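Handout, page 2. Input:
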Amino acid sequence: MASAHLAWTLTGVPGYRLAGRWRWALATTTSGEPVAKLDGMTNRCLIVDDSTRFLEVAQRVLEGDDVTIVGVATNIGEALDLADQLRPDVMLVDIDLAGESGFELARRLRQQPGGAGTQVILISSHDPEDFAEMIAASPVVGFLAKAELSGRAILDLL
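Output:
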């Protein structure tokens, strides 16, 4: 496991660098453990991105890391329908969904019956500092740069 160190705090949200990138561990207990950590998690994942090429690559990478991809979606409507049907453990959501917002999807998922059981991780090729305040205010467990996507990186956030 790569070593990470707490580097700074943005409006009370711990930030740290891992593999040269900033990450935010949003929800933690008083002992510092992630609230979203699920005992016995089966790593069932739904990926939401408007790029079919990225969906294909991400699926191959994550399946190679023993993450079960239960579905992929390219927009908010598809993602909410699949989340309702499949009940994934985690949903990877692109911040920019070709005219739709990954932040909006995260908010709508939380309002959907059963949606609170799915942990949302935002992904993007954009600099996370551009979205830091929005990430901190959203109901997600964290952010991963697309270039750093791996099963281990997902588990590190959960």
